[in-house]
Each structure stands twice: as C-alpha cells, then as structure tokens.
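Re: that backbone. Tokens:
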C-alpha cells in the first residue's frame, strides 16, 4: 500500500475521460488499496483514479458512517431522481468549496474490488458523492457546475476549526 500523489487543479489530466477496466487483476486491486489509503489520509469522502493520475474508471467513496468504503469499477448511472443543492469540495481543489446541484437519489451499477457486479442505491450525501466521482471519470470537475457566486476559499486554519 502506498499514498499516491493527488493531481491538483490546473492539471490537464483532470479533463480527460477515463477508460473502462477490462480485468480486475492484482494491479487494479493494488491501485484500489492505494486510492483508499490516499483518500483516508486526506480525510476525503471520495476519490477517482484520475485524481492519482490513472485514467481508469474506478472510484472509491467513504462517508465515515457505519458502512465500509464503497469501491466501484466501471460505474454507470442507471437512474437518478430529484435534486439537492449542496456544498461541495474536492481533494483536487484544496480549500475550495461551492454550491452545486446534484441528484437527490441515484442508482449505479458497476463492479466491486473482486470483479463482482454490484448495484448501489444512494441518496443525499451518497448520491452527491457518486455523481461527483463519476463526473471525474468523464473529465468533469465540480467547479464547472457551481452556482455562480458561491465559491468559497477556506484556509487550512479555518478548516481545522470547523
Ligand atoms: Ni473530486
């Protein structure tokens, strides 16, 4: 396991479309472990492989609730319902937050870290996180869809007081 370097705002790779994973082999499993470790070290809620410089369709999410982290390979949104206006940030945009509109509920299909087909239903924060991470796989980042005038820059000192 290893902490990987997170690509930051301005890095052109964040605009690229990630490719599907063909086989869930040891290399992919290692990448997933590293993504989880990197996300946890940064106290992030989600991370897409492109954010560690790998253009593969893999996302990890941890809401730090009672559920284990979610790993999804080749995730596809099969249904979404409703809307929520929420504050959002991203590990590739440190200290930046803005309001965005996300689906209130979402259903996603994909493979888990063992290559098994899974379906995940999320609402509220999980729906937001799934939509955010799947956007990354298509080369999109949250600042593209932020509600104008809502961008906030929170300094690290303020953040620790939160
Ligand atoms: Ni992000």
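Recovered sequence:
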């Amino acid at each position: 396991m290893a902490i990987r370097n997170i690509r930051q705002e301005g890095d052109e790779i964040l605009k690229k479309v990630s490719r599907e994973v063909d086989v869930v082999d040891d290399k992919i499993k290692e990448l997933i472990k590293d993504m989880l470790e990197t996300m946890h070290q940064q106290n992030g809620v989600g991370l897409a492989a492109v954010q560690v410089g790998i253009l593969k369709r893999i996302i990890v999410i941890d809401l730090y609730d009672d559920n284990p982290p979610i790993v999804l390979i080749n995730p596809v949104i099969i249904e979404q319902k409703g809307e929520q206006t929420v504050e959002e940030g991203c590990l590739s945009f440190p200290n930046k937050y803005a309001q965005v509109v996300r689906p209130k509920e979402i259903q996603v299909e994909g493979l888990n870290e063992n290559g098994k087909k899974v379906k995940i239903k999320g609402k509220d924060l999980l729906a937001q996180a799934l939509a955010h991470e799947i956007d990354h796989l298509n080369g999109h980042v949250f600042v593209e869809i932020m509600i104008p005038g809502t961008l906030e820059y929170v300094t690290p000192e303020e953040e620790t007081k939160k």
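The CA atoms of residues 10 and 89 lie 15 Å apart. Strands lie at 46-48, 58-61, 70-81, 84-88, 96-102, 105-111, 117-123, 152-153.
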